[in-house]
């Protein structure tokens, strides 16, 4: 299916375990992002990627690792899960803008459906 | 340090009336602002945006106003409908060069409830 998908949609794990959340987009968007949503904090950026093999930290990167070997995939790994990482995780993508009169249209990010992660 | 703030966690409005959602920001380097709408168990979806060089943008029932001197933006929904009930996030784009330019900073969200 076209669009942006996340898997799994729901995950329960235990403290100390490694968990990988998957994100896949079919638009060949250059930019991809990982956010977490927590009550009172809104959406906070964890990591983002401007292109394959280019990643950078966001606001709350500690405890997370990302990779981007292919344009369409952007997995997020919790190396040793902690209870504070219980959250809803959203992946998003955006095309790379520049050079067009309607540059503002390239700011929109498209979000996946989210993964609800519970760390016990 | 919350650079984008939505100080009202919730708002309740009667169907047919106007809904006004507010957002304040602190960073003068933001050059573009967006509003997203989120239903339960779904990802946020883009609603409307405004460039910092404008003070108003309108799309059907939705209008966003930007007051740069006050570092304040608002989303007006007229008339409000029960289907508008959702969480609304405002977001600001960081003006930066290269790969940094794709980032958005989101507010905490405001939950709108439109009652029939």
Q: Biggest sheet of chain A, open or closed, and with what strands and sense? A: 7 strands, mixed
Assembly form of the protein: heterodimer
- The rounded Rg of chain A comes to 14 Å
The helix/strand class of chain A is mainly beta
- Low-confidence region ranges of chain A: 98-104
* Total beta strands of chain A: 11
Major interchain interface with per-chain residue totals: A-B, 30 and 28 residues
Average the pLDDT over all residues of chain A and give the rounded result. Answer: 89
Present the secondary structure layout.
The complex is a heterodimer of chains A (120) and B (116).
Chain A: E1 4-7, E2 10-13, E3 19-25, E4 31-38, E5 42-51, E6 54-57, E7 64-66, E8 76-78, E9 87-94, E10 110-111, E11 115-119
Parallel strand pairs in A: 2-11
Antiparallel strand pairs in A: 1-3, 3-8, 4-5, 4-9, 5-6, 7-8, 9-10, 9-11
Chain B: E1 4-5, E2 10-14, E3 19-25, E4 30-38, E5 45-51, E6 56-59, E7 62-67, E8 72-77, E9 86-94, E10 104-106, E11 110-115
